[in-house]
Amino acid sequence: MNIRHTPNSYKNAYEACFVTGNLSDSLQENITRCRELLPLDNSFDFMTRDLYLGKTPAFLMGINGFCKTDILQQIFSDLQYPLYTKDGTIEDLITFAQAKIGYVQITPCASWEVLIRNLLSGPAVLMVEGFDQALLIDARTYPARGISEPDAERVSRGARDGFVETMLFNANLLRRRVRSPRLTFSIHTLGATGQTDVSVAYLDDCVNRELLEAVEQKLESLDITALTMGSKSLEELLIPKKWFHPLPSIQLTERPDVAASYLIEGHILILVDNSPTVLILPCTIFQFTQSPEDYYKPPLIGTYFRFMRGLCIPVTLLLMPLFLLLTVYYPETASKLQLLTTGETSPVRITFYVLAVEFLLDLLRYSAALTSGRFSSALSLVGGLLIGDIAVELNWASTEVLFYAAVTLLTSLALSSPEFADALRVYRIFIEIGTTAGGTLGFGIAIVLVLLSAVTTPTFGGMSYFWPLFPFNGRALRHLLFRSPTTDAQPVKIWNRGHLHHRK
Length: 504
Description:
Layout: H1 13-16, H2 27-37, E1 46-53, E2 56-63, H3 69-79, H4 93-100, E3 106-109, H5 112-121, E4 124-128, E5 134-137, H6 167-177, E6 183-190, E7 196-203, H7 209-221, H8 231-238, E8 251-253, H9 256-264, E9 268-272, E10 278-281, H10 299-329, H11 331-336, H12 347-370, H13 373-393, H14 399-414, H15 418-455, H16 474-481, H17 491-494
Helix pairs in contact: 6-9, 10-12, 10-14, 10-15, 12-13, 12-14
């Protein structure tokens, strides 16, 4: 079948977003204008309907699948009922809507820009002859998956719900947990073409006002075409980073209970439509050592797992580089510590083993993550057992290197933030390369560069990435290191950052 491209009889969506001016009181002129701005005749998902409200002509537009057709059918069935239209003509559109349309969400609109933006977001548009205003009927509905626990943030006990791709549902999940009259969701629309809705959520009585103003101003100043990757695109736009800053500058979560706890502590949340991930501002490195699992355990058990997770960070970062350093440049020490038990192995071969296993484990990990659930378990077994044994027999790896790499992989998986674990992996490979090139000196220089990269990681609003260690806040640091009983945890008092000001 041949597809014929018709001449451009309407402007594209990018141009439509910059439409200026107001509607005409001529229905036919408004319909003609709509056909110029929108592909009403060429795009199958646009639905239109010519109506008569008594003797007054009207025109309905909407997007099929975004509008609740049963509600629209009931509205117009009532409007066309003889008792409602016995006068024949409509003299005042607003009074007519207030008196005859029983649906709650009806908004008059006179601007083409507002009309187009709302129509593409889901509400239906009703235009009536003789009026330079249209009625926006917000009977929208969005396709959405079921609310389930996010795979990356599972807990053994606790809530099993998670954010989804519909921003309104996510706001409802937060409102359900934080029933404060001060909870506010401000709305912004970003992207000239994408027109993505973004909401800033905060508690009005405990938010840092300077940080909130900085967030609002930043969102309003973004000149972009679309948020192609949702919250990830917005994250990179809010905090531009250099290539040598792999650590995440914004914490992400898909759990409503985690987001609600940060909200009560005075943080700012950013919800992006079409994305199940919520951004948390401001962000510090210590937030990536926390896990909701700690708070679903008794205080002592939660503290133990928190320390264990903290220990996983240096193990993930330094175990393989230290093994490489000792076995290649200090073989006597490595022999005393029995780091190698397979006999003499050349430094070049050990270096090759370490870098090859790093690559193979990353390949196995990402392959299992992107493979269908029906095959991921089998892939993990095949990769861990079969490939590992064959690699040892073919001298592509040694048993010791596989063991230390497996421990490193397990410690990285124990970290609650995948973004943080990925950054540590990049740092570790960099240290291994530095150790290979320069021995002890290269190892030391690589460590220093990694520390500099971490210290200089940018954050939004100039907040310290290492708070509460710098500037020092002993009480907040104690509550980060130890899982406090609920009776002692008062987040609004503990986490007050009023002394941290936005850097102009």
